[in-house]
Design a protein that fits this description.
By secondary structure, the protein is mainly β. It has strands spanning about 5, 10-15, 20-25, 35-40, 45-50, 55-60, 65-70, 75-80, 90-100, 105-110, 115-120.
Length: about 120
């Protein structure tokens, strides 16, 4: 059974840090690009970051320089280190697995999300 379990969310003050994790099971995730999306209340879901199978990374402009995505293929785990958090980072964060090594490809699996709340 395929499963993506996000953790690490919580409440933090502006300027603080959080590290999100996404533990994956039920497939061979090292074969796929993986990434993070987020959705704030009343807003559309937006892409945050992606990491390819060779660990090439990309980031949305809004998080560039503050967030770092990484993956541990041996542990089938995806991470998102978030620093210098801002109130506008408040959202539900979702882990996603693409259908191939290409990060421009469609999405195969979505996690259930972990809430991040940043207070000013």
């Amino acid at each position: 059974q395929v499963q993506l379990l996000e953790s690490g969310g919580g409440s933090v003050q502006a300027g603080g840090s959080l590290r999100l994790s996404c533990a994956a099971s039920g497939d061979t995730y090292r074969r796929y690009c993986m990434g993070w999306f987020r959705q704030a209340p009343g807003k559309q879901r937006e892409w945050v970051s992606s990491i390819s199978t060779d660990s090439t990374t990309s980031y949305a402009d809004s998080v560039k320089g503050r967030f770092t995505i990484s993956r541990d293929n041996a542990k089938n785990t995806l991470y998102l280190q978030m620093s210098s958090l801002k109130p506008e980072d408040t959202a539900m964060y979702y882990c996603v697995v693409h259908v191939s090594v290409y990060c421009a490809s469609g999405y195969k699996y979505w996690g259930q999300g972990t809430q991040v709340t940043v207070s000013s």
